[in-house]
Design a protein that fits this description.
The complex is a heterodimer of chains A (about 260) and B (about 260). Chain A has about 260 residues and is mainly alpha-helical. Chain A contains 12 helices and no strands. In chain A, about 80% of the residues lie in helices and about 0% in strands. Helices cover about 35% and strands about 25% of the residues of chain B. Chain B is built from 9 helices and 10 strands. Chain B has helices at about 55-65, 90-100, 115-125, 135-145, 160-175, 190-205, 220-225, 245-250, 255-260, and strands at about 15-25, 30-40, 45-50, 70-75, 80, 100-105, 180-185, 210-215, 230-235, 235-240. Classes of the chains: A mainly alpha (about 260), B alpha/beta (about 260).
Chain lengths: ~260, ~260
């Protein structure tokens, strides 16, 4: 209730009016006649953006768990490679990683007849597997570092209580340590996922036609520059908003931790 | 397999619940326990007192191997915990099984903060002891009711006072129907006005004939509920006996001095 009432404050009303005016102006005085022609392509591109984001975030996070665990509590021979991986990923541009994978492996693989003969070849000759791999590794690298902190930050008493009641180690990890670690870094993960969304246009450079690539196509075909870009910005903002909403939901389901 | 049979253990046959024999524990070069022996029969309430650094918490934590003893023998319910020469438990399964029989209550409560009180209480019965969920829930609700938290079952620990959290932690420990309850300074982290509510729950458990080892700073409480009081000083048992004697007519000068300082 009060939340809605707060929207009616004068300065907010003014801002909303300005924004509405801008939208109306855009709709009326800019060129949108290209839109119907490119709509099917745009929907396809949007869909590709979303699944690339979802798949790379999920796979990347699954990789981040062992990476974080190895760094937080692992023996040196696991911790050192995990740390090296995270450092390299975080220390080099994502664009470079995508290109190294695509142009590197992509030109290496065809030289081996047994790879070309393998059942994976139909996939390996396309661009998207390299895009997915690069984005997955990138997310894993950043989140591996986040999870390292998350695992160390879980209160030792929480784990001790689980031990004291006879929980086996795997169960402690699954039911206490991991959920609490994730809970502690949910806000960070939400932000990182939005960053990941905004990193997806880079895969357009290796011919994966996602939503950004579609807007470039429109520009190249029709020489219309601003309209596709404005629409693109809107699309990214909406997806980012949805991501923030989802993470906010999960966060509010388990209220914050600290005891006493 | 555990939920049904919960009448208080009959006091008549005085079987031993816990035997600690010649327990040593060092942290690096610091020798915290220097040969402590202790026996608790079923139904006994043993209060363990002593100054800070006397090793009383460490002793309690050695019983369920939250700390690994350097050497010594620990027998729970007539089952000796198998240890390797370096003091580590030889059989993880055994130690896990025995831990489920020892309901531990911590100074800092340590309720799982990502779960509601009800979830906290059913966690071990459902996932470790494999009690059917509906049965575990019914029992958990009864236990929460018993510690006066029936209306907080769906609340997260973060929204509760320390006293409420500790009472919930006691319910969690009771939910496994423990043979022995271990209390590690259960009221030390509480504001003074919250101590009473927790002590009264523990007092009820004592009256019910539960076997309990209580590390505590509450001397009045110890005197009132304990059958046996152990005074630890610098990792050794300096004096022990029934509460009337330990508090009323302490033999050792150190204990007399200790009792004077804690009031």
């Amino acid at each position: 209730m009060t939340g809605w009432r707060a929207l009616l404050l004068p300065h907010r009303l003014l801002l909303m009016a300005l924004f509405a005016g801008f939208v109306i102006w855009c709709a009326l005085s800019l060129r949108w006649d290209w839109l119907p022609d490119y709509l099917p392509l745009a929907v396809e591109g949007l869909w590709r953006t979303i699944w690339i984001l979802a798949v790379t975030c999920i796979l990347g996070f699954l990789l981040a768990i062992p990476l974080g665990l190895a760094q937080a509590v692992g023996p040196w021979y696991l911790a050192a490679p995990a740390r090296a991986f995270c450092t390299i990923i975080r220390g080099t541009p994502l664009l470079l990683q995508i290109w190294l994978l695509y142009y590197g492996f992509g030109s290496l693989f065809p030289q081996f007849p047994w790879i070309r003969a393998s059942e994976l070849w139909p996939y390996l000759r396309q661009a998207w597997p390299y895009a997915v791999l690069a984005l997955t590794l990138s997310y894993a690298g950043y989140e591996g570092e986040v999870m390292r902190g998350a695992f160390s930050s879980v209160n030792k008493g929480q784990l001790e209580a689980a031990r004291a009641f006879g929980m086996p180690r795997r169960m402690i990890f699954r039911r206490v340590w991991l959920p609490q670690a994730i809970r502690n870094v949910l806000p960070t993960l939400g932000g990182e996922t939005i960053l990941q969304l905004k990193a997806t246009p880079l895969v357009a450079t290796i011919t994966v036609i996602e939503i950004y690539a579609v807007s470039s196509r429109v520009r190249a075909d029709t020489f219309i520059v601003y309209e596709p870009l404005l629409l693109l910005a809107l699309v990214y903002m909406i997806i980012a908003g949805i991501i923030a909403l989802i993470f906010g939901r999960i966060e509010s389901r388990v209220p914050n931790r600290r005891q006493g | 397999m555990t939920a049904e049979s919960r009448q208080p253990p009959a006091p008549a046959p005085a079987e031993t619940a816990i035997i600690v024999e010649n327990l040593h524990k060092s942290f690096g070069s610091l020798e915290v326990l220097r040969g402590v022996s202790l026996t608790a029969r079923k139904g006994d309430v043993v209060a363990i007192i002593g100054g800070s650094g006397s090793g009383k918490s460490t002793m309690l934590r050695c019983i369920n191997f939250l700390e690994t003893p350097t050497s010594g023998r620990i027998v729970v319910n007539d089952e000796e915990i198998a240890i390797r020469p370096d003091g580590r438990p030889a059989n993880r399964r055994q130690i896990e099984r025995i831990r489920t029989r020892l309901g531990m209550v911590f100074q800092a409560f340590n309720l799982w903060t990502h779960r509601t009180l009800l979830e906290n209480v059913i966690e071990v019965p459902v996932h470790v002891l494999k009690t059917p969920r509906t049965q575990a829930i019914a029992r958990a609700l009864a236990l929460l009711d018993r510690v006066g938290l029936a209306d907080k079952a769906d609340t997260f620990p973060a929204f509760l006072s320390g006293g409420q959290q500790q009472r919930a932690a006691i319910a969690r420990a009771l939910a496994v129907d423990p043979t022995v309850m271990l209390f590690d300074e259960p009221t030390s982290a509480l504001d003074p006005e919250l101590v009473g509510e927790v002590l009264s729950v523990i007092r009820d458990l004592a009256a019910e004939g539960r076997t309990m080892l209580i590390v505590t700073h509450e001397m009045k409480f110890a005197r009132e509920v304990a059958d046996h009081v152990v005074y630890l000083h610098q990792g050794r048992i300096e004096e022990e006996g029934p509460p009337e004697r330990v508090f009323g007519a302490p033999q050792s000068a150190r204990l007399r001095q200790f009792l004077q300082t804690v009031g």
